[in-house]
Design a protein that fits this description.
The chain has 206 residues and is mainly beta. The protein is 12% helix and 30% strand.
Length: 206
């Protein structure tokens, strides 16, 4: 598909063993940073995915304060767990950025979960790529342009695939509009886990 410069699709980046290790790390992290269901700013509508985070910062959202990054879990008050080394290696391999990622948002999708078209733009370091890892069931990833109503293209992503949104693609609307249940045995209770790596602060501000 023809998309903006800076979009990269890396199918099968993680083999099965490394996928299993990442899922195990997620499940271990939820002991202190359990999945929770954030809500939309202003309306308070609950999102269809549940979330947690790895790293010194975590992306959160609620009705009153909106989208933001925090150093602690919204419900438990505990700091976010450290990110698996495999994600550090991934960032160093594909991000092309002179500073490490600071947040890894972990989204858990069930059969009816969706993620509407959006742009990741809550960070000061908008010159850094967003790196996304798919684990578990296949999903239909949709990528558009710099406006919400522009033409979009879809791509079915599988477990172990990686997507990089850098350059012009960093400002492109994207989302997930379908999960294909039962297409993977990776996640213990089924579903899909997506890991999104982001640099939040400019290198001289972090």
């Amino acid at each position: 598909m023809k998309v903006a410069d800076g979009f990269r699709y890396l199918p099968g980046y993680f083999d099965r063993a490394r996928q299993e290790a990442l899922v195990a790390a997620v499940m271990d992290a939820t002991k202190t940073a359990p999945f929770y269901r954030p809500s939309m700013p202003n309306t308070g509508q609950a999102m269809s995915v549940t979330m947690t985070n790895f790293g010194p910062l975590g992306w959160v959202s609620d009705k009153d304060k909106g989208y933001r990054y925090e150093t602690h879990h919204s419900e438990t008050g505990a700091p976010w767990p450290g990110a698996p080394h495999a994600l550090v290696e991934l960032w160093n391999d594909v991000a092309g950025y002179p500073a490490p990622f600071e947040a890894c948002l972990v989204n858990y999708y069930t059969a009816n979960s969706r993620m509407g078209l959006h742009v990741d733009w809550d960070e000061a370091a908008t010159d850094a790529a967003v790196v996304s890892v798919s684990l578990g069931d296949k999903a239909r990833f949709r990528l558009g342009g710099p406006t919400r109503k522009g033409q979009t293209h879809s791509l079915v992503v599988s477990s172990g695939d990686v997507i990089v949104l850098g350059g012009a693609a960093r400002r492109c609307f994207h989302g997930v509009d379908r999960i294909y249940p039962g297409t993977s045995t990776l996640v213990p209770e089924g579903g899909r886990i997506n890991l999104t790596l982001r640099r939040v602060n400019m290198p001289d501000q972090g």
